[in-house]
Specification:
This protein has 109 residues and is an alpha+beta fold. The protein is built from 3 helices and 4 strands.
Length: 109
């Protein structure tokens, strides 16, 4: 089973409140077994437009574990602090596992 990742791009407009969110969300992440893999305030955009001032990547044991964390009571309590401090884009994605790669479809199928 591939790992799950939560990727957030954040346009922060209140750093103090964002710090409060970080403190409030930390326990929920520990409980979920999450590992913060990236916090970057200066991503190098190679193509297209990138949203926000900060990019965060958090690793979970699986997509299901990432979803369970996002929906947990502990994180639901912290989430409004982030939403008040920043405009955020967030996704959950599955890590790459070559053994679970879907078959390639031919164009037009």
């Amino acid at each position: 089973m591939p790992k799950g990742y939560v990727i957030m791009t954040e346009a922060i407009h209140d750093e103090e409140s964002m710090a409060a969110y970080g403190a409030a969300s930390a326990e929920s992440m520990v409980e979920a077994g999450a590992r913060v893999r990236v916090v970057d305030s200066n991503p190098q955009v190679l193509e297209g437009q990138w949203h926000g001032h900060r990019t965060v990547v958090v690793e979970f044991a699986s997509v299901e574990a990432a979803r369970a964390w996002y929906d947990s009571a502990a994180y639901r309590a912290a989430r409004p602090l982030r939403q008040a401090a920043a405009v955020t884009n967030a996704v959950i994605v599955a890590g790459f596992d070559p053994a679970m790669r879907p078959p390639v479809q031919e164009p037009g199928q």
